[in-house]
Each structure stands twice: as C-alpha cells, then as structure tokens.
Amino acid sequence: MAFPDAVGLVIAYLDSLHSVPVKSRIPNPRPAELIQVRQVGGAWMPPVRDSARLDVLYWAATEPAAFAGGELVRRQLHALQGTTLLGGVVCYRVDEFMSPRQYDDPLVPNNFARWATYSLLLRANDAVTY
Amino acid sequence: MAKLVDYKPNRRGLKALRNSPEVDEMLERRADRVAVVAQAGFTAALADSSIAPVVEVLQVDSDTNEPRARVAVIARHPAALRIEADHRILGGALDAARG
C-alpha cells in the first residue's frame, strides 16, 4: 500500500465505535441512521505524508439525533490526532475544513443530517518505495 | 553553535502585504484555476440535465476589521447547495489552488 486508504481506514475506525452503519455511499433505501464518509480532495505531501479531505455526513431520524451523532463523530475524529488508531497508520493532524453544519435536502422528507469536512494528515510509509 | 536571532515582525508591513495588489492577483490566479476545474466538474456531472450552474470568481471584502485581499469562487444556481452536497464539485476543485 503506497498511500493509505483514508476513507477505508476512517470507516473501519468509526464502524468499531458505532452500531450505526458506516458507508462511503448511501445505500438505497437509506437507513434511518447512517454515517457517510467520502473523500473530496487532498494531496500527497512528499516525501511521506498524505492529506485527505473527507466529508462526513451523519444522517438520523431526528434533528437532535443528527446533531448529537455529528458532534460525537467530530470528537472521535479529533481524537485521531497523534495516534495510530487508523489501522496502525500514523495520523499527524486533524483539521476542520468545515465544522458540522445542518444539511437539509428539501426534496427528501424527514431528512436530518449534519455535514462536516475534515482534513487528515496521514503517514504514507511506502510512498517513496514505489 | 547556532545564534538566536530576535524576530521583530513589521506589523505595518505585514498589513500592507496582505492587502497588496500582488497578493490580490496571486489569489485571483488561484481562484481562476479553481473556477475552471469546478466549471468542468459541473459540466461533466450535469451533462444529462438542463441545470447549468455558472462558476464565478468574486473579489470580496474581508470579513475582518482590517483590509485583506480575498477572493471567492461561487456557483450561481438555486440548486447549487444541493449539487454541492451530492457531487462536492466546488469543494473538490479546491486542490487546483495549490502550488
């Protein structure tokens, strides 16, 4: 693995902490409660760091549940800084690109979600050994 | 042995720098690159749709009390937020500002 699979690692990490499904894509039908993690940018920072910008959306059946879930995930992601909790990969920094915000989809009834974007700076151990 | 050097920031100079035409032009060049990538993203993502957001670069005033060069890249369309949530086109284009 030259570069860490940030989405896969974060999904596995959150999946171990939640009973709620954690996916990169929204299943059809969407479960009442769901955590979605998707990569929306990032760049290699030579020689051995890789930044990954990740959207994290917390969907829930009620607005308070979406808020609480979004904030819990927020704390859990910040707890990654300076650890190897992502499958042994060093996570140097966690920055908030966009803090959790209300995301209303007017086309979907009973739609409650919190949408946030985080930037994770990870070690890419084998990036220079390709 | 390395010598310690006193660093005294030139605050007046820093203020002038961050509001200088050169910094403003540099930001605009980066914003133009983001806008080009974003416009291409909208075109590709919405090829089967009649929706056609127009991406613009705006020179905007600073939201601080001090003058500071600042630009914004926006998508003009009523459905822009929904498209952004689904496709993350503006957010994804941001990496074009690097370098």
What is the helical fraction of chain B, as a range of percent?
40-55%
Q: Would you identify the regions of chain B where 5 or more consecutive residues have pLDDT less than 50?
A: none
Strand content of chain B: 5-15%
Overall pLDDT of chain A, averaged? 92
End-to-end Cα distance of chain B? 35 Å
Q: Main beta sheet of chain A, described? A: 6 strands, mixed
What is the rounded distance between the termini of chain A?
A: 9 Å
Give the rounded overall mean pLDDT of chain B: 90
The total count of helices of chain A amounts to 2
Helices and strands, with pairings:
The complex is a heterodimer of chains A (about 130) and B (about 100).
Chain A: H1 6-15, E1 22-23, E2 34-45, E3 49-60, H2 63-78, E4 83-86, E5 89-103, E6 112-123
Chain B: H1 11-18, H2 21-45, E1 54-59, E2 71-76, H3 80-87, H4 89-93
Antiparallel strand pairs in B: 1-2
Structure commentary:
The complex is a heterodimer of chains A (130) and B (99). By secondary structure, chain A is α+β, with helices and mostly antiparallel strands. Chain A is 20% helix and 44% strand. In chain A, strands 1-2-3-6-5-4 form a six-stranded mixed beta sheet. In chain A, strand 4 (83-86) and strand 5 (89-103) form a beta hairpin. The longest helix of chain A has 16 residues, at 63-78. Chain B is α+β, with helices and mostly antiparallel strands and 99 residues long. Chain B has one domain. Chain B is 46% helix and 12% strand. Chain B contains four helices and two strands, in the order H-H-E-E-H-H. Chain B has a two-stranded antiparallel ribbon with strand order 1-2. The relative contact order of chain B is 0.19. The model of chain B has no long low-confidence stretch (mean pLDDT 90). Classes of the chains: A alpha+beta (130), B alpha+beta (99). The A-B interface holds A 38, 40-43, 53, 55, 103, 105-107, 115, 117 and B 82, 85, 88, 91-92, 94-95, 98.
Name some characteristics of this structure.
heterodimer, A: 130 residues, alpha+beta, six-stranded mixed sheet, 6 strands, elongated, B: 99 residues, two-stranded antiparallel ribbon, 12% strand
